[in-house]
Amino acid sequence: MNIDMAKRLVNRRRAAGLSQEALAEELGVSRQAVSKWERSESSPDTDNLIALAALYDVSLDDLLYQDVADEGQRAEGRAEAPGGTVAAAGAEGSSVVGAEAGNSAAADQDDPAAVEVEAEVIDEGAPAGSDEGVDGGTSGAQAAPGMTSKDGTVHIGPDGIHVQEADGKDYVHITWRDGVHVRDASRGDEVHVGWDGVHVNDRSYNDWHEAHADWKACSCKPQSKGWRNWNLFPFPLVAILFYIVTAFESGAWVPELALFLAIPVYYALGGLLFGKRACAFFCTLYAMGTVGWFFQMCLWGEPHPAWVMLVTIPLVCGLFGAISHWWHHRKEA
Q1: Cα(first)–Cα(last) distance of the chain, in Å?
Q2: pLDDT tens for residues 269-315?
Q3: What 8-state DSSP symbol labels residue 256?
Q4: Quick check: 121 and 15 in contact, CB under 8 A?
């Protein structure tokens, strides 16, 4: 928070006739927190900003970017009656702070390092019995429900915090009702944290501890964009079409079924190229090669000794799995 916003917070508090301790009690925070806000050492979070705006009956835009004196001048101009006379300046809802400068200084004596600001504020002068607040005319929630950037990509208001790219693909939404929802379209990842737990892509967890334990135990790495594109390619459909065409031309419908063994090899090759999963690739290659050999020997009527090789598949894959586990945990060892 910059120094100008900090000064405005001081002005707002003094205009309301509150000391730092009184304001802290209203918001349920410590006086030190209020002092840091007014010294521009820290910024109020979204909940406290909303509470401050409601307490002072202004919008978030006016709270942070509008000076109290300027609002007093606007309110004084609106208070003029149609005949040119000025409505009663002593309306019960108006706030006169000029005469309370001494009280404001005394209220801040517990924080001598607070930002020094002008204590005199022009009378708000809202007509008696009207519903106008210090932002003039309508309440902050009706006039401006929140702060929105010029390009519309950032919005902060009572409905939460919303940040999104101009194309709407990447975004961050934080609300009391729905929780936190983050989407990274470039990686294809979505994280949602709400009252019903934690959801990461297609996985759901009861809390963060469970999610952290699961992802920490998972040895798989996040897929890169090239890896996802590799997996999104409809290779099984290509294999089916190729099988139909070749089998129709050769008439060997049964032998051509060996083409489907290339499907798991294709995805294992993607893991090797983009995820450096060498052990998983060679394990898949060995298993599919063995099954293909056994399949061919069965067609020739000589399943022996190919069937013996089938027994070795669990042993070889277990060996590759042990090597992979050792490789990924060698630094810890």
Answers
A1: 47
A2: 999 998 888 999 999 999 999 999 898 888 888 877 878 888 899 99
A3: G
A4: yes
pLDDT tops 60 at residue 74: no
Higher-confidence position of 98 and 287: 287
Q: List, edge to edge, every strand of the sheet that includes 197-200.
A: 147-148, 154-157, 160-164, 171-175, 179-184, 189-194, 197-200, 203-205
Q: pTM of the full predicted structure?
A: 0.37
Helix axes 262-275, 225-232, angle to 10 degrees: 170
Asked if 58 and 135 touch (Cβ cutoff 8 Å), the reply is yes
Tokens standing for residue 308: 């013996």
The Cα-based distances of 290 to 79, 240, 295, 298 in angstroms read 91, 21, 8, 12
**What is the identity of the amino acid at 261?**
L
Give the total residue count for the chain: 333
Cα 180 to Cα 9, 175, 200, 207: the distances in Å are 28, 7, 12, 13
Residues 6+ apart with CB under 8 A from 313: 286, 287, 290, 291
pLDDT per position as a tens digit, 141-200: 333 456 777 666 788 888 888 888 767 678 888 887 778 888 887 666 788 887 777 888
Which position has the token pair 């809802």? 93
- Are residues 1 and 37 in contact, defined by beta-carbon separation less than 8 angstroms? yes
pLDDT of residue 29: 87
Query: Which CB contacts under 8 angstroms, 24+ apart, belong to 253-262?
Result: 254/299, 255/296, 255/299, 257/295, 258/292, 258/295, 258/296, 261/288, 261/291, 261/292, 262/288
Q: Are strands 189-194 and 147-148 parallel, antiparallel or unpaired?
A: unpaired
Q: How far is residue 9 from each of residues 47, 104, 134, 137, 247, measured CA to CA in Å?
A: 15, 13, 14, 21, 79
